[in-house]
Specification:
This protein has helices at residues 3-9, 14-29, 32-43, 52-63, 79-90, 115-125, 141-150, 164-174, 205-218; strands spanning 67-73, 94-101, 132-135, 153-158, 178-187, 222-228, 231-236. By secondary structure, the protein is an alpha/beta fold. The two termini are 23 Å apart.
Length: 237
C-alpha cells in the first residue's frame, strides 16, 4: 500500500472509515517493529491515538525525500516523534525532527511532572536519537521563532491545544511552514465526516471548527488526501 492507493480507496462513508481503520490496524499488528513500539507506548501510557495511525506515519515517511524535516506541535511524550525516527532509520532516510511542547499535561488532564525524563526514557528504550525540542507553548513568540528558524518542513503535525483560538493560531503560525508538496497532518479534526453513529472518535468540535474555518480562507493551497478516524492529512499544492 502507498499513500496514493490509500487516497484512491478512501470514501467518506461509515463502511469505508471502518474498513480502512481496521486494515491499517492489522498492517501494524503484522509489523513487528511498529507493533512493538505501539504496544510499549500503550502499555506505559506514553500516548493516545489509534494503532492504525502508526501505518499512516509509515506511508508518509515512505513518501519523504532522503533528507526531510518534520515538526510536531504538541508532542505530549513524543510517541509520534519517536516513531518518525524509527521509520526514517529503517528507510535509511535522514529525518531532521523538531517539536514544540510545554512538557506538561496542559490541556490533557495528565498530571505527571517529568515529561522530559519520559521522553528520554522512550528514546532510550528504542535506542534512537533525541529530537530538537522547544519547551513552551506553541503560541509563544519564541516558539514561532524556533519553528521559522528551522523551516521549511516536509511534514507539520498539529496536535496541541484543543481550544478554538489556540488551534487557529497554530494553523496560522505553522501550516505556512510546509513545503509545496509537503503534508499538514491535523489531529482531532474530523467531526464533519460521515462516520457511523457509534464506535468512532471523530475528533473535538472546536478543533474541527478551527480547521474548517482556516481552510475556508486558505483551502486553495491545500488538497485533502484522506483521514483515518480523527486524523486528517492535507497536501500543500
Amino acid at each position: 500500500m502507498t499513500l496514493e492507493t490509500l487516497k484512491q480507496e478512501w470514501l467518506d462513508t461509515p463502511e469505508s472509515h471502518y474498513h480502512l481503520k481496521h486494515l491499517l490496524s492489522q498492517l501494524v499488528a503484522d509489523d513487528t517493529e511498529l507493533s512493538t513500539h505501539r504496544k510499549w507506548v500503550r502499555d506505559h501510557v506514553f500516548g493516545m491515538g489509534e494503532d492504525a495511525f502508526h501505518w499512516v506515519w509509515k506511508l508518509l515517511v515512505d513518501e519523504m525525500r532522503n533528507d526531510f524535516r518534520f515538526l510536531e506541535i504538541g508532542c505530549h511524550k513524543c510517541q509520534v516523534i519517536s516513531l518518525i525516527r524509527i521509520l526514517s532509520n529503517r528507510a535509511s532516510k535522514n529525518a531532521n525532527i523538531f517539536g514544540i511542547t510545554p512538557m506538561n499535561g496542559a490541556g490533557t488532564g495528565w498530571t505527571e511532572d517529568d515529561y522530559q525524563g519520559d521522553i528520554q526514557k522512550l528514546h532510550d528504550k528504542f535506542n534512537i536519537e533525541y529530537p530538537n525540542l522547544y519547551r513552551g507553548f506553541s503560541q509563544e513568540e519564541e516558539a514561532v521563532n524556533f519553528a521559522n528558524q528551522n523551516s521549511l518542513f516536509d511534514i507539520v503535525y498539529i496536535d496541541g491545544s484543543h481550544e478554538y483560538n489556540d488551534v487557529e493560531a497554530d494553523l496560522n503560525n505553522y501550516a505556512p511552514l510546509v513545503y509545496r508538496g509537503g503534508f499538514l497532518v491535523m489531529d482531532d479534526c474530523c467531526n464533519d465526516l460521515n462516520f457511523a453513529p457509534t464506535g468512532h472518535f471523530a475528533g473535538i468540535q472546536p478543533v474541527t471548527d478551527a480547521f474548517l474555518d482556516y481552510m475556508k480562507e486558505h483551502g486553495e493551497k491545500w488538497d485533502f488526501v484522506f483521514n483515518i478516524e480523527h486524523i486528517r492529512v492535507m497536501k500543500r499544492k
